[in-house]
Every structure is written in C-alpha cells, then in structure tokens.
Amino acid sequence: xxxxxxxxxxxxxxxxxxxxxxxxxxxxxxxxxxxxxxxxxxxxxxxxxxxxxxxxxxxxxxxxxxxxxxxxxxxxxxxxxxxxxxxxxxxxxxxxxxxxxxxxxxxxxxxxxxxxxxxxxxxxxxxxxxxxxxxxxxxxxxxxxxxxxxxxxxxxxxxxxxxxxxxxxxxxxxxxxxxxxxxxxxxxxxxxxxxxxxxxxxxxxxxxxxxxxxxxxxxxxxxxxxxxxxxxxxxxxxxxxxxxxxxxxxxxxxxxxxxxxxxxxxxxxxxxxxxxxxxxxxxxxxxxxxxxxxxxxxxxx
Length: 301
Description:
The protein is α+β, with helices and mostly antiparallel strands and 301 residues long.
C-alpha cells in the first residue's frame, strides 16, 4: 500500500461529529467525478474511500449508491435514479441546475466552524487528493476539475492557515504544496494523526541526517585543509634544510620542524600539543611565519 492510501484509509475511519460528517460528505460529492442532476458519481482506486463515500451518502440522505468494481480494479459509484439524485442534491442545498458548481458553506449546519472546513477539506482530499511518501519527497496535491471549485477550495485552505500554490495541468486545476512543514500541517489539519506523527518523525530523521552530513562534510573539509597545509609546511622545511641544518636553528624552531616532518597530516592544534611545553594554535602558526621568513631570506642569498 502507498503512503497516500494509508492516509486515506485513516481519514476514512475518522469518527466525526454530525456537522463535520455532513461537511466531509459535501467535500466528497463536490470534488468527486460528478455532482449534478444528470450524474452524481465517483471513480476511485481506494476501497476505503469508495465504502466511506457510499456509507456517508446512505447515512445522511437515505439513498444507497450503486458501487461496482471495474476490470482495472477501480471502484465506480453512481446514484442510479433521477429521483435519488434530486434527494441528494437537495439535502446539500442544490437543485442540480446551477450554472457553475461552487462551495456554499451556508448549506452546512455549522458553516462558520473551522472543524467543518477541515472536514470539507478532508472530503475533497479523499476523492481528488494525493500525498507522496515523505521518505521520497514532500508533496501534497488536490486535482480539481472546475476552476471555480478550485478557487473556492483555495480560499478554504487559506482560511485554515495552510499554504498552497495552484497550476493548470492539462484540463485540471492542481492545488499543491511541496513544503515539508506545510505537508505536515495539511495531514494534521485533516485529522490523520498517525500519518501526521509519521511525517514528523520522518522529517526529524531527515533533519538529523542532514546535520550529520553537514558536520561530516565540514570535518572532512577541515581535515583536507589541515593535510594540505601540513604538506606545504613539510615542503617549506625541506627547502630550508637544503641550505641549513636543524642544529643551526633555534631550539623552538628545530623542535617544530622535527615534529612536523614526523607528523605531516596533523592540525596545528594537534602539533601544538606535541610541543614541550604545549603551544596554542596561534603560537605554532607564528613559528611557521618565522620559518617562512627564514626561507625567504635563504632564497634571496
């Protein structure tokens, strides 16, 4: 099963209050395949959604939809008779003769409640939405067939404080978000609590892995720089030793040269700890500056 299927199954099993149950069914009908006098229908690949759609309509209106399974494994649901379609339409405040289908929240008992807006969003997602497995990428979308319905849904999404963008894809209007936090918010707002926790945990693990990778890359870069600097210092010392001996240097510089030749790949901090007495990184750096000056003087002679 896909992550999207798991989310829809969880949402289909949610227990809602009476007002939200109606709002959710309202969302499924509006954003299903058709909601008009000539046809009320839904086509879905998800059995949990198909069964929930049928039971919601039956519980609310007394009309029993006709559900069949196609050869492709999809579930096709129809309200078979005109009289039954009129009954369903009227229950939700429609005649079926409207010139354009719009979301009319005033048809709901608690039209001003955020809970009903969340339920309507949940219903819309069940029939026209999808969400990608967060282990792969963050992406949630609603594939809407009508422009005005899309605008109305965008308004509800905005009222709920969620972020969304809109594009046209073929003959459809797609509302989507690819932001990790937004996908998390959508799932939580719709009420898929188990999926919400799963996305949060996945996001947290990704953040930890990214932090580890950044730290590893940082440490690797530092190590590379230390090795490169050490090799340059070894080359500097070897250049000096072609002209003078270690015994000709002061004790502090002689010790530094010997330790660097023995340890070409360690950092200045580590090199300083080998000195007697121990030196700070800056003190070791100053001694190398002296060696650079000696090398320059020897070269000029």
